Amino acid sequence: MRGMMSYDLMETIRNTNEWMGASARAMASYPVWGLAPHPMFKLMSAWGRVTERSFARMVIKPDWGIRSIPAADGRDHLIEVETLLDKPFGALIHFKVQGRAPMPRRVLLVAPMSGHYATLLRSTVASLLPDADVYVTDWHNARDIPVSAGKFDIEDYTLYLVEFMRALGPEIHVIAVCQPAPLTLAATAYLAEEDPEAQPRSLTLIGGPIDPDAAATEVTDFGRRVTMGQLEQLVIQRVGFKYKGAGRMVYPGLMQLASFISMNIDKHAQAFSDKIMAEAQGEGSEHDHHNVFYDEYLAVMDMTAEFYLSTVERIFKGLEIAQNRFTVAGKRVDIGKITKVAVKTVEGANDDISAPGQCVAALRLCTGLPEEMKAQHLEPGAGHYGIFAGRSWRNNIRPLVLDFIDANSGTGPGRNAPQVRAV
C-alpha cells in the first residue's frame, strides 16, 4: 500500500534513534567507568540522555500540567479538565476551576491543527484561567482515528468550530491562534447567516494566514513553488500497522517537525549542543528551559491528508478566505455578513510564519462590521510564538485582549454565564 512502508520506515528510524540514545546512556553510566575518568564517557552519557528523551517525546501526547490557580479569595483552586463534546477528530474541553463561581468572561481558544497538540497553548491557557472560564479545541491525532471515521478536511474543521460555538452559547469570546484564524473567521460568518443568535461576542485572531499573499514568508513561498501533485507525492503517507488509524492517509507529524526544525536549523543545533554539554558537566535539570520547550516542541501529531492538502490548496494557493470565496458544503460563506461580532487582529512584527499583514487582512473582509467594532495590534519585536506565549503575550497582548473582550461583552460583573447548550 502506497505510503505505508514510508510511514513505518520513519517510525523505525525514530525508534532506532531512541534505542541508540538509551543504549549510549546506559553503557556510559556504568560505575566501572569511574576508574577511567575520561570526559568521553560523560559526553556519551549526556548525548544518550538527550537523544533518548528527544526521540521518545515525538510519540507522546503532552499533559496539560495545569494543576491549580490562585483566585481572588486568596486560595488555590484545583483545575479539572473536562470534556464537553467528544467527536472523532477533536473534542471541546473545559478547564473547570473547582470551587469558583462562573466567570463573566468565557473564552474559547481555538488551537492550531498544524502538527502540534493543543497543549502548545498551555501557557496561554494558564495566563487566562485566573480571569476567565476557558474552553479549548483539543484536536485528535489522525494516526489514532480509524479509517471508518471518514474524512476530515477544512470544511469539516469549520463545521466542528460552528458546533463548538453553538454549544457554548452567544456569550462566548473566541480567540483563534495561527492556523485556525481563517477557518474561525469563516465559521463565524457561517453562523452569522445560519444561526445569528449563536454568534460569539468577539473574535480575536492571532497571527493567522487570512491573506497569505499580503506578506511573503518561507511558508507561502513553499506553497507557490510546489504543485498539489508534487506535494501529495512528497509528504502524504499511509498510517502504519502500529496505530488504530492503520491505512489512513496523513501528513505525518514527524515530517512536519522536520520542516519546522529546518527553518531554524542552526538555532536548534546550538540548543541541543548546549544541552548535551550542560548534562555532561552536571548542570542539566529535569525542568530546565530546554526540556520544558522541547518536550512540547518535539511532540507532534499527524494531520489527515485531506485537511493538509485542502489547507494548502484553498487557503494558501486558492486564497479562498482572502478573496471571500470560501464554501462549505457547496454554500458560499460571506465574511461580509459578520455585523455584530467585534473582531481584533494581533500580529508580531518579527513573525516569520504569518508575517505582519496576513492577519490584519481580516478587517478588510469584514465589510459589514462598523469600524468601531474592529481593532488591530502589532507587537514590536515579537515572533510567531511570542504573540500567544511568553513575555510579549503576558505583559502586552493579553491585557489588550482582555480589555477588548470586556469592551464587547454583554455580561455584567457577577452575572452567571449560560450553561453549555445541547446541539
TrEMBL record:
Residues 207-408 form the PHB de-polymerase C-terminal domain. It comes from the Bacteria. PANTHER family: BLR0908 PROTEIN, POLY(3-HYDROXYALKANOATE) POLYMERASE SUBUNIT PHAC. This is Polyhydroxyalkanoate depolymerase. The lineage of its organism: Bacteria, Pseudomonadati, Pseudomonadota, Alphaproteobacteria, Rhodobacterales.
